[in-house]
Structures are given as C-alpha cells and as structure tokens.
C-alpha cells in the first residue's frame, strides 16, 4: 500500500509548501507527500470525477477538491485515464472508518 498526501494552497494561510512539522503528521514509510501549488492533481481528479460513478458530497472549494479521500483497488494503474476509485469522499476525518475497511479487505 502507498499513501499519497497532496498538499495544496486552498486556504488564505496556505501560502507556501508545508514545513517539517506539518509533514511529520503523516510519519509513516508508506506515505509520499507532495506540494501541488498549481492544483494539477486536484484538476485531474475533478475531471475524472465528472465522468465516473462516485461523486463526493463535500470537499470542493474555489473549484478544486481538497481534504478529499480517494482509495483505489489493489493493482489500479494511473494513466491518461484514472481508474475508478472504490472510495471518493471526505473529509478524511469523517471517512477514516471506510478507508480502514478498504485497507483491511485489500490485505
């Protein structure tokens, strides 16, 4: 399992990349963290969401997804067209149980 945490400037206080104290909140060897000031990944997920079956009932601000949880089946490959997620919702604090269930089933 790999976890991608993508940090984006959404709030007025998000004017620079997260510092070490913020990055340390996700201190796990499976986590890869990225700073996306241009909202590139959020735009790709938004585009895929419009044509997919899952639609989050939250997590959009200024036209971008944020604080979104997306989980993909084992073996899913990202290419020009994103795979359909098995979970697409948020915020993460409200979807932790659903995410833990998906991870447990994938083991």
Description:
The structure is a single chain. This protein has 107 residues and is α+β, with helices and mostly antiparallel strands. It has one domain. The protein is 29% helix and 19% strand. The N and C termini lie close together (9 Å). The model has no long low-confidence stretch (mean pLDDT 89).
Number of strands: 6
* Approximate shape: globular
Give the proportion of residues in helices: 25-40%
**Which structural class matches the secondary elements?**
alpha+beta
Low-confidence stretches: none
What is the H/E order?
EHEHEEEEH
**Tally of discrete structural domains:** 1
Report, as a whole number of angstroms, the end-to-end distance.
Answer: 9 Å
Radius of gyration: 14 Å
How is the biggest beta sheet arranged?
A: 2 strands, parallel
Walk across the major sheet and give the strand order. Answer: 1-2
Average pLDDT, rounded to a whole number, is 89
**H/I helix tally:** 3
Percent strand: 15-25%
List keywords for this structure.
107 residues; two-stranded parallel ribbon; two-stranded antiparallel sheet; 3 helices; globular
């Amino acid at each position: 399992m790999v976890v991608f945490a993508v940090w984006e400037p959404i709030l007025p206080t998000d004017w620079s990349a997260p510092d070490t104290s913020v990055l340390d909140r996700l201190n796990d060897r499976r986590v890869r963290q990225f700073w996306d000031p241009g909202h590139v990944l959020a735009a790709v997920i938004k585009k895929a969401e419009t044509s997919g079956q899952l639609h989050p009932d939250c997590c959009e601000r200024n036209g971008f997804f944020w604080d979104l949880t997306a989980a993909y089946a084992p073996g899913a490959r990202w290419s020009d067209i994103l795979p359909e997620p098995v979970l697409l919702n948020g915020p993460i604090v409200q979807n932790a149980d659903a995410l833990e269930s998906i991870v447990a089933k994938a083991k």
